[in-house]
Structures are given as structure tokens and as C-alpha cells.
Amino acid sequence: MRSMPESRLPRRPTDRFEDVVAWLLSVLVMLGLGVALTVGLSAFAAGTQQVRAESATRIPAVATLVADAPRADETFTGMPLVQTSATVAWVAPDGTSRVGTAVVGVGTRAGVTIPVWITGDGTMSSAPITSLGAVWVGIGAGLAVLAVDACAVALAWGGTRRVTLAVNVRAWEREWALMEPQWRNLRR
Questions:
Q1: Residue 39 to residue 133: CA distance in whole angstroms
Q2: In the β-sheet with 124-125, what is the strand arrangement from edge to edge?
Q3: How many whole angstroms separate alpha carbon 104 and alpha carbon 95?
């Protein structure tokens, strides 16, 4: 039994152009994946170094609320506040008393103790970044690169399609201008 020859439509130059652009954009996507992985791993490594540095320079301490925290006020959205700033006191590593501001629950009473982080000289600081934070930094950096790559590919492909459509429409109009008189004569 003989198989039928495969019939293919003739290809226009714009079809070939789109094929070339599609191949180039596919390569760009693959390169973007590699760059995203590299950037993500680099950001994770930097975050891990930050975890080590902050963990080495920050220590946990206990602070005592000096005065009652303010009561709940409504925000501009009408929702009550859950946390507020209040004055707290703690003891620095050298034994001196320090006073500063920390975030506490609204309406917390004076004398309540809260955990805080301080530096070696006794200055209040934020909590050190965690290992999970370093992972999220790496993931975020990689995803940002992927988003830029995806936008570039989408814009390039959209521009290519727009240009080839305009070229094809002009070609179809020229062909119709040649064929329409013959077609009109066939209908009569």
C-alpha cells in the first residue's frame, strides 16, 4: 500500500522569519533560566553570609515595658491597630541600663517583658535574618530574573507577530487587488 505524499502549504518569508525569531527566543528563554538559577544561587549565598554576620553580632535580650502601651486607635481604614511602639528598658552586655522603643501589642501593661535583639554594644537591633530568609532572598532574585526574561520574550514575540501580520496584510491586499477583477468576472 502506497502512502500519500504529504502536502504542505507554501511558506511565506514572514513564516520563515517567525521561525527564526521563535528559535532565538527559545534560546533566550534557556539562557534566562540559567541566569535566573545563577542569580538565585548567588543571592542565596549572599543571604547565607548575612545570616552568619548578623547571628555573630546580634544577641537576644529581654526588655521590660516602661509604661503602658497606647490603647488601640483606628487607622485611616477604620481597622484597629494590633501593634504599636512603646518605651522599653534592657540591660546591655556591659551591665548598663538602656532605654529605647520597641513594637508591642496594643494596650500591653507596664512591667511586661518582651524579647528583643541587641548588638554587642547594647544598641537595640532587628532580629538577624534566618536561613529561611536567605532561601527566600534567593528564590525572589531568581524569580525576578525569570519575570524580566518572560517580559522580554513576550514583548519580542508580540512585536514580531505584529510586524509579520502587517507585512502579510499588505501582501494579501496586493494579491486581492490582482485577483479581485478576475474573481468578479467569474461570478457574472
A1: 16
A2: 97-105, 83-91, 58-65, 113-119, 124-125
A3: 24
- Beta strands in the chain, from DSSP E residues, in sequence order: 58-65, 83-91, 97-105, 113-119, 124-125
Give pLDDT tens digits for 117-161: 998 888 898 888 889 999 999 999 999 999 999 999 999 999 999
DSSP bridge partners of 101? 87
Q: What is the 3-state secondary structure (H, E, C) of 118-169?
A: EECCCCEECCCCCHHHHHHHHHHHHHHHHHHHHHHHHHHHHHHHHHHHHHHH
Cell digits of residue 124: 537595640
Q: What is the pTM of this model?
A: 0.66
Q: Provide the grid cell at 172.
A: 494579501
